[in-house]
Design goal:
- The complex is a heterodimer.
- Chain A contains twelve helices and 19 strands.
- Chain A has a five-stranded antiparallel sheet.
- In chain A, helix 9 packs antiparallel against helix 10.
- Chain A starts with a strand and ends in a 15-residue tail after the last helix.
- By secondary structure, chain B is of the alpha+beta class.
- In chain B, strands 12, 13, 14, 15, 16, 17, 18 and 19 form an eight-stranded antiparallel sheet that branches.
- In chain B, helix 9 packs across helix 11 and helix 12 runs antiparallel to helix 13.
- The longest helix of chain B is centred in the middle third of the chain and has 18 residues.
- Classes of the chains: A alpha+beta, B alpha+beta.
- At the A-B interface, helix 1, strand 5, strand 8, strand 9 and helix 6 of A face strand 9, helix 7, helix 8, helix 10 and helix 15 of B.
Chain lengths: 383, 487
């Protein structure tokens, strides 16, 4: 294992080498278990500041060495990949067989493990869902170095508990994801992008939901809704015309805008994820606009997820504003997560907000990481 | 304790829930002695039929206080003994909880009690052009609560996924009687995905008392093709060609000669005579796409050696095509006095090899095996035929077990949709290491530390809560030596 000191004197960074990666991760965790050290887990670091304010840890365990495809069976549409593999690299390999892993969070360089650990999603969730829905098997290393798997490498399998779903979105607080197996999707040959002007996205969302052309992705960027269709070349034109008619637009193109699916925030801004019941899209957008003047948006139309970027005025009482938003979202069965924010905001505002069944979550945490040494502070209710 | 707890509980439950919600007479208890897997039977100590969440919570809380185990049961259609009762325990039958609270088309959600029958959801949603996607073969009788426990799939899960992909929220009674809400109408509830962890836990983490499901827009067009092949090999080649071409059918089902014979005898489904295998390929989606894919599927079938293709042009013809397939399990009763329904999974590409191995096994043992399966996702349902009166039971069980081992040898699973339940817990150690099972137990211990909630299911030798896993120390020796990877 390679170790080097970071600027903080007593922080070691453990980066396992690829060839012995799994054993080294387990060994590093056993070592930190033996000495009672806290451990933070790092992928590419694209979402390192997401979630609650991370407390400093004794050790940083990098998954950078856990890289590469373990097994890819194109005929089975299944791939097993090490957690530190950048998603973009994996997609490149899969593209050779005209396949892809149907996940498209926009953070460039993000690793497969990091995407699973944060349940990061993009516009294609409309058709394919989120990381939990693609994952069919997972291998994890617990805080004490125990290595275990659940699921498998077949697309249909109900043997044993589905730890993959439990670990997806757990922000590294239950263990280190070391390897994951996903089902894959074929890439249809033709695509069209239907675009409609939409100061409010609700009408477009309703038209998309009611249509039977089965779009694969849809995104509102704050002023326009872009809908992606993919199909056989012989079918695509008719589908695009049908959808355009339903949306009341004539704008049909073949390319997605460069910013399609990008997060609507810049460094230093408050980044929010707002969820809601589907029918409440316009009501929630109106409420956010009222509460956060000047906020920028992107929304996974048809999925119930809105992302917002907001630069808080100096005098703003951010805690009160977030509380107001949470009350608004709750009235539509939704929640508000402060995904990212300047450190000062994070110490003042609970990033995750009130969480249902939080006692149960503490009990799960206590079982998997009884000494609370993994990614302390990153997750709900201080977990 | 000087008095056995069950009689006291019976009186208590009768007082709180009402006399008609409690069953104590042995003859009536016998109704519940098994689920769809009738090989395992046990007369429950006590049966309760709650109608509200509060009643379920009360029953569970009292059981928890007294250390009495309890098992939840839906419609009892499960095929792994997952709802097998306990002589010393309470069976909580959910079939009276049949309220549909809401069908919110604009939210694409419905909220129901767990006793609601699967097909009822699609019946309620259909007038609005929506349906509930998971469609287990028993969908006319099986309950949503049972589907949640088993993470049920069905013929169309190849395209649409399983129960876990279509449930967004649960109200559950935890094993100590506490009521919790997990998820809801909105997606991505903050915190651990306890909805995802709960679904498919086979009733061992608690009892779902309310279920919020996603409703799916009905496709514009559906096209169902029946293709007859001389042998299974050609049919298998057609499946591979269809998948390799990038088409995602809603369903691909395969039946072999023996199961066709049985279905003919039972329902006269009229499949092409002389077929060694038939494929049912169903496509759905936008009309133009279905048209294009349909032409391609027909070409792949012909190229692979299909000698007859039939296209169902309307719902009546579609039902006729599916009739043979859907009747297949029951139909083998016509050609064999006894049979075992097996449920295993292999990677799609291993199907031809596994089918040849099953055939060889059948010849070697003289035990006939009829193959009916979801070919698109590699989920086999071999029907092992035998005659108990001729002393074939043991041989049939051995063939059935050997088929599961074949699945594992090819990197598959011991169950694709029927669950582990009571039936397959011993085989769990063939699929998972002791560490894997110990770590799964951590989840169990978080939810049910006293192990009162459907105990003795899924896991072969549950670790006591409080023991730490990993005493066998970290990485498996074979992994460490570089001999084997984790999968």
């Amino acid at each position: 294992m390679s170790s080097e000191d970071l600027s903080a004197p007593d922080v070691a960074i453990a980066t396992p080498a690829a060839d012995k990666s799994l054993a080294e991760v387990a060994a590093a965790l056993r070592d930190s278990h033996a000495s009672g050290q806290s451990v933070s887990i790092a992928g590419a670091g694209t979402k390192a500041t997401w979630g609650g304010p991370a407390r400093p840890t004794d050790v940083v365990l990098s998954t950078a060495g856990l890289s590469g495809v373990v097994e890819y069976a194109p005929g089975d549409l299944v791939v097993t990949v090490r957690a530190g593999t950048p998603l973009a690299d994996l997609q490149g390999e899969l593209a050779e067989h005209n396949h892809w892993l149907a996940l498209d969070p926009p953070e460039a360089a993000a690793t497969v493990g990091g995407i699973v650990a944060t349940a990061a999603s993009g516009p294609h969730r409309l058709r394919f869902g989120t990381p939990r829905d693609q994952l069919i098997g997972i291998t994890v290393a617990l805080a004490d170095g125990t290595v275990a798997k659940s699921g498998g490498k077949v697309v249909k399998n109900v043997a044993g508990y589905d730890l993959g779903k439990l670990f997806t979105g757990s922000f590294g607080t239950l263990g280190v994801i070391v390897q994951a197996t996903f089902k894959l999707q074929p890439r249809p040959p033709a695509r069209r992008v239907v675009t409609v002007e939409a100061p409010e996205p609700g009408a477009a969302a309703k038209a998309i939901a009611g249509s039977t052309v089965a779009p694969v992705a849809a995104e509102w960027d704050g002023s326009r809704v872009h809908v992606l269709l993919q199909a056989a070349a012989t079918a695509i034109e008719g589908m695009a015309m049908q959808l355009a008619a339903a949306l009341g637009t004539t704008e049909i193109g073949e390319r997605l805008p460069a910013a399609f699916g990008s997060r609507p925030w810049a460094p230093g801004e408050i980044a929010l994820k707002v969820t809601h019941r589907l029918s409440a899209l316009d009501a929630v957008v109106a409420g956010v606009r009222h509460t956060l003047p000047g906020a920028r948006f992107s929304a996974h139309v048809g999925s119930g997820v809105i992302w917002c970027g907001w630069r808080a005025p100096k005098a703003a009482d951010v805690g009160a504003v977030i509380g107001e938003l949470r009350a608004l979202a709750a009235s539509y069965d939704g929640t508000v997560v402060v995904v990212d924010a300047p450190a000062a905001v994070k110490t003042e505002v609970d990033a995750w907000g009130p969480v249902a069944a939080v006692d149960m979550m503490h009990r799960v945490k206590d079982q998997f990481d009884p000494d609370h040494r993994l990614n302390p502070g990153r997750f709900v209710d201080g977990i | 304790m000087t008095t056995p707890p069950l009689p006291n509980l019976a009186a208590d439950f009768a007082r709180v829930l009402g006399d008609d919600c409690v069953i104590t007479e042995r003859a009536a208890l016998r109704t519940y002695e098994c689920d769809g897997l009738t090989a395992y039977r046990c007369i429950p100590g006590l049966v309760v039929l709650p109608e509200t969440t509060a009643q379920v919570s009360y029953v569970v809380r009292r059981c928890h206080e007294l250390g009495v185990p309890f098992v939840a049961r839906g419609s009892g259609t499960g095929l792994s003994g997952g709802a097998l009762p306990m002589e010393t325990g309470v069976l909580i039958v959910m079939s009276r909880m049949t309220k549909v609270f809401s069908v919110d088309i604009d939210d694409e959600r419905a909220v129901v009690q767990p006793g609601v029958v699967n097909l009822e959801l699609t019946r309620r949603a259909a007038p609005y052009g929506y349906f509930y996607a998971p469609d287990p073969s028993s969908q006319q009788v099986c309950s949503i609560g049972g589907n949640v426990a088993e993470n049920s799939g069905g013929a169309h899960c190849l395209k649409y996924g399983f129960t876990a992909h279509h449930v967004t929220g649960l109200e559950v009674v935890l094993p100590d009687g506490t009521v919790e809400r997990l998820g809801g109408h909105a997606p991505d509830a903050p915190g651990y995905d306890l909805v995802g962890a709960f679904i498919g836990s086979e009733g061992t983490l608690g009892i779902a008392t309310e279920v919020t499901v996603r409703l799916t827009r009905a496709p514009e067009s559906v096209r169902t093709l029946l293709a007859a092949f001389p042998t299974m090999d050609e049919a298998g080649a057609a499946v591979s060609a269809i998948i390799a071409s990038g088409i995602v059918p809603a369903a691909i089902e395969m039946m072999d000669a023996l199961s066709i014979e049985a279905a003919e005898a039972a329902v006269a489904c009229g499949y092409p005579p002389g077929a060694g295998a038939v494929l049912i390929v169903e496509l759905d989606g936008p009309a133009e796409q279905v048209e294009t894919d349909g032409t391609a599927v027909e070409r792949h079938c012909r190229d692979a050696g299909a000698f007859e293709l039939r296209l169902a042009v309307d719902d009546v013809e579609r039902a006729q095509v599916w009739r043979g397939r859907k009747s297949a399990f029951a139909a083998v009763g016509r050609i064999s006095p006894d049979y075992i329904v097996q449920d295993g999974v292999v990677p799609r590409t291993a199907l031809p090899a596994v089918l040849r191995d099953i055939d060889a096994l059948s010849r070697e043992t003289g035990i006939r095996v009829a193959n009916v399966f979801h070919a698109g996702d590699g989920n086999l349902h071999p029907l092992v035929l035998f005659d108990e009166s001729r002393g074939e039971t043991e041989r049939a069980e051995s063939v059935s077990g050997r088929i599961l081992e074949l699945c594992l040898e090819h990197g598959g699973s011991i169950t694709g949709e029927h669950g582990v339940g009571h039936d397959k817990k011993k085989q769990m150690t063939r699929m998972f290491t002791a560490e894997d099972l110990d770590v799964m137990q951590l989840l169990r211990c978080a939810f049910d530390p006293e192990s009162l909630c459907n105990p003795g299911k899924v896991f072969p030798t549950p670790r006591l809560c409080g023991e730490r896993p990993g005493r066998r120390q970290g990485v498996h020796p074979l992994q460490e030596a570089g001999v084997a990877d984790v999968f």
